[in-house]
Design goal:
The structure holds 2 protein chains of 2 kinds. Chain A contains 9 helices and 12 strands. Chain A is of the alpha/beta class. In chain B, strand 1 and strand 2 form a beta hairpin. Chain B starts with 14 loop residues before the first helix and ends with a helix. Classes of the chains: A alpha/beta, B mainly alpha. Chain B: GO terms for molecular function: transmembrane transporter activity.
Chain lengths: ~280, ~350
Amino acid sequence: MTVTDTPALVKLTDVSKFYGNIRALQGVSLEVSAGEITCVLGDNGAGKSTLIKIIAGLHRHDAGSFEIEGEETVLANPRAALDHGIATVYQDLAVVPLMPVWRNFFLGSEPTKGRGPFRRLDVELMRETTRAELLRMGIDLRDVDQPIGTLSGGERQCVAIARAVHFGAKVLVLDEPTAALGVKQSGVVLKYVAAARDAGLGVVLITHNPHHAHLVGDRFVLLKRGTMAGSHTRDSITLDELTRQMAGGSELDELSHELERVAESGPDRPSGTADTASGTTAP
Amino acid sequence: MSTAGAVDERLAPTSLFRRLLGRPELGAVVGAAAVFVFFSFAAPSFLQASSLSTILYSASTIGIMAVPVALLMIGGEFDLSAGVMVTTSALLSSMFSYQMTANVWVGVGVSLLVTLAIGFFNGFMLTRTKLPSFIITLGTFLMLTGLNLGFTKLISGSVSTKTIADMEGFSSARALFASQWNVGSVTLKVTILWWLALVAVATWILLRTRAGNWIFAVGGGADAARATGVPVVKTRIGLYMGVALCAWISGQHILFSFDVVQSGEGVGNEFLYIIAAVIGGCLMTGGYGSAIGSAVGAFIFGMTSNGIVYAQWNPDWFKFFLGAMLLLATLLNAWVRKRAEAK
């Protein structure tokens, strides 16, 4: 699955970040190519957020190199990251709950038609595009006119991902997309992450759940207290090993307990029509 | 499962009903109908055509301001200076014309610029300081109240301005801002046209332009709006300047209706505008509402304030009715919205 003849979409080598005398990140390397998912795993405070902020252009790295498609780059701001095709979907998703799905989908980049005072939103195009783009990701929405706040957490996450894909993202950075979701919802989201990968995007998936990571990831970068605790490809590590590396000793029993539950319902992914918010499930 | 374009079978049964319930102005329309029926029985003269024109006129004086205040509220902010700003705008036209020129149109133009500048000041201070709009516009409200009285006494020597009825351009300005026609036995004032036009324009902006999308977004989730590239600061300043523009229209109407302006007027009217917007379905927290709703809210105001007179009750009861209406409308809106969003 790895594309070897073209440079990686994003490649970080020995990147460090200091906040004053606090070492937030030291010597972290990561790469993601088109059609590939790189998972960044780590517990709270491991440096995941710092890493995501560097890739998203919110912070600049202090040491190491940051290459985008083979070119050494320093991102000035989030806009610069977007111009390079790096779209970040944060946990709050940047959606306005009371607005309809189609208005949210195009928020800030609304297409218009007509001239002068008659310049107006191309509502039909917006509605149709939203419906089509979501369907392409496998989301069959009941009604694009419903407020996005009425969607389930998983569906909202998927809309945010579909939006990033539609607006030409080449690299998708997802900040803990499954953190606040139930097991079933997580499965739905992971399916769309895989769909984005199949559409040819490079995906950086930040998570603290090794189980989710192992389901979809091609590469795994483990962070611990700001340093890199390991870097693996899918072939070179098992789920058990990934879990063991992420959590140590006493935490492990508890964690494996949790993971067994996840393993049971993991493969049983619901179909796209499942209205998981209200608990009703489509066949 | 491919349902794009086709009618979704999961949508069909409740679609129209739901869509109706989902409209922000539904609560206000139901309320307006109730008030109308109530006064139709309580006051026999309420249903006469001449009464209707009076009701429409008083609705339009509130409605002209309720439109931009509703937009501002959808954008998540308040403007407590809106009431006195109307008076400020009228005073500016009158006194500038009287003192500086022979033509009232110069004063009207200067007033437009200064009033827009006040609106800009509100928006600029809000976005710069990030203080709540309640505080910023409360400050502007007090300052304008003081300036209105202070300047008028300083320049005219009394609390009202001197008449400008004999000045050049007065009749043409009156035609634009304060004319009226007789249609049969009914007198219709030009403010009704201003009001309906503003409602139409505001509805167009809200539902069919990028700016409208931004207003909803800024009020419904400013951080999300910023993250998606919406010009949040410009949108907010624009909304305050919209309030200023309508305050100017309203102020010119007062000036050219009565020739003179009382400098202490306007205080408290800001709440009437807010009440009309809230009754019309605007959410106090922003992100939800409509311009048409504010018009219905203003119409309810017009019916109540005049209906009490037609019913020959003591007008002291008016405020009580207004307050009760506000509570009922807000409760009804909340209930309707809950029903609309429950799937």
